[in-house]
User: Fold these one by one.
Assistant:
Number 1:
Amino acid sequence: MKKGNNTLGNIAWKFSERITAQVVTLLVSIILARLLDPEHYGLISIVMIFITIANVFVSDGFGSALIQKKDADELDFNSVLWFNLFFSFVLYLILFVFAPFISSFYGEGYELITPVLRVLGIRLIVSSINSVQHAYVAKKMIFKKFFLATLFGTLVSGVIGIYMAYSGFGVWALVGQYLANTTIDTIVLQFSLKIKPKMLFSFSRLKGLIGFGSRILATNLMIAGYEELRALIIGKIYTSSDLAFFDRAKQFPTVITYNISSSITSVLFPRMSIDQDNISEVKNIARRSIRFGSYIMCPLMLGMLGVARPFVSLVLTEKWLPCVPLMQLICINSLFMPFHTTNMQVIKALGRSDITFRVEAIKKLIELVVLICVMRISVFAIVIGMVACSTTFTLINAFPNIKLINYKLKEQISDVAPSLSMSILMCLIVLSIDLLNINDLYKFVIQIVVGVTIYLLLPLITKNPEFKFVISLIKSTLKKTNNSNN
């Protein structure tokens, strides 16, 4: 129980760190959305398609392999660092050369893609260093080190982005924000960790990491590739504004989903890798994590679904209202992310990256067929296809762990059901308030107050164990803070 509580405590700390940074990011993005046009976001979304796919090669695979390897040492970390740096330079040169061809693929009106891609592509080189730093922090379970780097990078890059937007730089304001964020994060984290790269390199060590890392890389490449293929298709078949509405609809649910999932992943993978020989302990950690993740994710996603229309109208202005129905669907799509994340981390931690690759290959094949069938109907149809696939994949992700750790499907459903049922009830009540003929500001405030009240009362009445854990965690944190101040 002690290990389980410690793991959840680490998840809570990581989640708190991410939320602090993302609150700043959210405020910055709201200001930028008011200053910039949907077309600016559409252009940067197209550029990010290619940078995101290229970034998978330098940020994934070897980082996971370093964490999973029990005896990873200084030589392993330095070998991966120098390889990542070299490979990121190669990828950047490829993007630099092919930028004009990408611009011509999208046609007239997209000429800015070439210079924007060439400048923002520098982010790849910085990310190659940052990925090894993240692997080191996860391996050592020193997640507090992320806080200063992430917060400082987010604040400074936000100021840069807002200043450039006010000054009329247009899409370059987003370029400046993205590039500054990654660069400052990496520099501050380097000083925080107090480790210096050494001229150490071993092909044999890299070769030893390739087996596990290559399958993780291939898996993540499939995931990122498919996600960006969807954006590429929307940008090509429809307008840049349609792509901007799609990306804006994803932004707010994704901020929540990413932070909860990355918090779970960052802690679970190294924790379960340490305990990979103790199957019962791995199962116990997985169950507690799914319960905790669902308790946090379900009300946030269904709550956002309920307040989506007044939220977008008030925060982003009415020019972004076309993204509301898309945002509501994406909230449903993101609902079971802790379920997905935990199940996949169990498989990875047990060293079965072959299973994760096969599972993702099957899922992406299904998604591709669905995407081809709906892509010319509408953007709304594309998102409906996303939701249908995600719901089906919840079961697919669960099946391997029935055999690997004896985590039965019935147990998994029972671990999610309490939080899901309470959140659905809360969502229905919040949605009914949206029917009231009152000012959007008043409506939004009432929805938030009612939604939070309902979700706090229901766990209290039902004596939900996750609610008790959150309360005890808050009390423990406050106690430690008071003791440190004294």
Number 2:
Amino acid sequence: MSEAASHKPVETEPNTPYPPKFQPDDRSDTQSRIGYRSLLSLVLYFGVGYLLLRQIELLVVIIAIIALHEMGHFLAMKHYDYSDVSFFFIPFFGAFVSGKKREISQKQSAAILFAGPLPGILIGMALLVVDNLTGGMHWGQLSLRFVALLFILLNSGNLLPVYPLDGGQLLNRVYLDEEGWLSNLFLLVSSAFVIWLAVRTRIYLLLLLPAWLLVRFYANRQYLILEKKITALGINLDISYEDLPDEDYWKIRKVLIENKASFLGVDGGPPYIYDEKEEKISAEVETMLQRNLVQDITILEKLVLAVCWIAALVVPLLLLKEYSLLPNILR
């Protein structure tokens, strides 16, 4: 039986009023669980996709495009030393990559966000050239030109300035600094646009996105309330979990237990006892520690980045028009 599930008082050093903070499972175990969940999400995505499309070739192409896109994000986050980087497929919507890092650089964020769509756009453009040079190639019922079209549209469309697309995240983090009323207004406008798009196209599953944003707004509001209660105790939240004093861990833990319904019935101490939910509690404690956005992009660099961003949106459309594909899309 693990220490977290034993419900026994934690042993303390002599003359130490607070025991050691909870240490999560070994990182290798965590990565194994992440890998298992990622594989399970892929299997689920494939199953749901097949039920909807009934075309193996098309489904394989879509999964390949999404996987290459997210792999770009994944490798960039690994390069910038994000921890617990995970890759999950979401039926109907695509996939996402997540990771943890306490200090987030705007420059690194821009590189990570572009690392997803840009390779896919370049691959699509290259496939168009190959298709043109070979006079047209096919795989089953799919033409190489159609595959190139999917590569370009899915990746270029992801750069549109609508949250939570890559373009929306780029706008929010680099140009709106992710804080303040302007950022909140942008998220609300994005929600309104998605609602309009869902009604206009009758793809009502899209309504899950603004619903998720509303949940996020509520969670942020609750976070701010808890943050005020914790800082009122004189606790410094501008610190990493590793450097968090044991005393502060148990004090933050008690505030969370008293204010979150999911931890109802957990003993806040003293005596200080690990609960069977301790791993989740420790994750919530870590979430309360402040994440710092390093604003390291100058105004000139933002202008250059904006030009590159616009080019990544416009050039593929011009190329599609050149290959007489754009009119078919808009019809």
Number 3:
Amino acid sequence: MAEMGLVGRDHVPLRQAVTDEIRDRIVRGEYPPGTRLAEELLARELEVSRNPVRESLQALAAEGFVELEPRRGARVARVDSQRATELFEVRQALEGLTAELAARKRTPEGVATLLAVVDEGRAAADRRELDELPMLNTRFHGQLATMADNQLLADTLAQLSGVIRWIYAERLTERVERSWHEHVDLAEAVARGDAAAARRLAEAHVASARDAYFAWAG
């Protein structure tokens, strides 16, 4: 499999490519919470040495995807209720600000890109292509961040995007239709420059995702 195509992929350093691959497998549910992640096994699966795998697991631990235990190695983390609550609180505030700024600073090109992502998401949702939706959700919120044109805000959201995608994927089946209807309403508010409505809709969107998550988590 020649390093799973990771070496030289878009000039991405090997450690980053390995990190991205393991993260994606966690998000897709291939490695459920609590799964042991043995360096040697991962190295064989990815056809790389153990060093980049070890470095990647350390990076994923810093992101919150992996827990490192002395003498026991790594395992996929579990998102407890406290951490989930904190994540949704922070995300609600940040996404509200992002949507408001996006509406204020919108450009025809930015709006066109945003609406195109919405169209892709709605089409994928209608076809029940659930594997495509977490990344499309990330693209939607990423485009809002781009339109907000605030680098500090974008960097902060980027640090959370992986875990957000993970949580989103867990409740995808139940949230799929409602989530993309919410995206449509939010995108339309941004397109018409209604900053107050955009902020309100973005905050309500995160609140809806939070309620669905905790209803599932019990």
Number 4:
Amino acid sequence: MSLNAQHTMQRATIAAGLAILALFWGCAKQPPSLLDNLEQPGMSREELRATLYDFVIRFSGDVEVASFYIISESGDLVMARYALLWLANVTPAVQSAAFRSDPAAGMFDVWALCLQQQEFFERGPGKERFGEWQSLAVNASKNLVDEIQGIAKTVTGAKYDQVKSGVDEWVDANPIETVIFTRESTAPLTAAALGSVSAGAVAAVGNMADEVRDLSARIS
């Protein structure tokens, strides 16, 4: 084969590869979302994604303020260690929940985590860990639940009560047992909450466009 023929074949192969990549990218750009199961969702996919990212910042900030106040005011090394464990473990947990390819699935997971955290400090194993400063953890958890439920109400609209019932049931069945905040996936919950449409897509790895666009936010 001549050198020119080899170059021609290489260019053809590269062009074909780029065409396939472009086609894949275009198809993957907006995969199905749980939002598709709502008649009139209160937010677009991108609006919900941005809202979740903002919420993660506030979540982490509220937990940080509460935990550091407990540490500085109590002067108790055992409480201080527990407060630091709370901050160190729940922060990556909420980030992992929010940074999903489908922001609707992320919203449900964050919602469930907020309720689990509230239950943990109100009635669960963490209910007496901070003594007279326990209200700091409880109030921070309650405020975060109120905020994420406000977001969920805007998104789900008329289906809010139905969806909330499913989230509450899941949280009751999946309590947080330790301050390590080890959790089960809410993927089955999200699929059942709004129907089976696109459940496979929600469980899939996700699309390249979203992953590239979210990379800087994930690193931050």
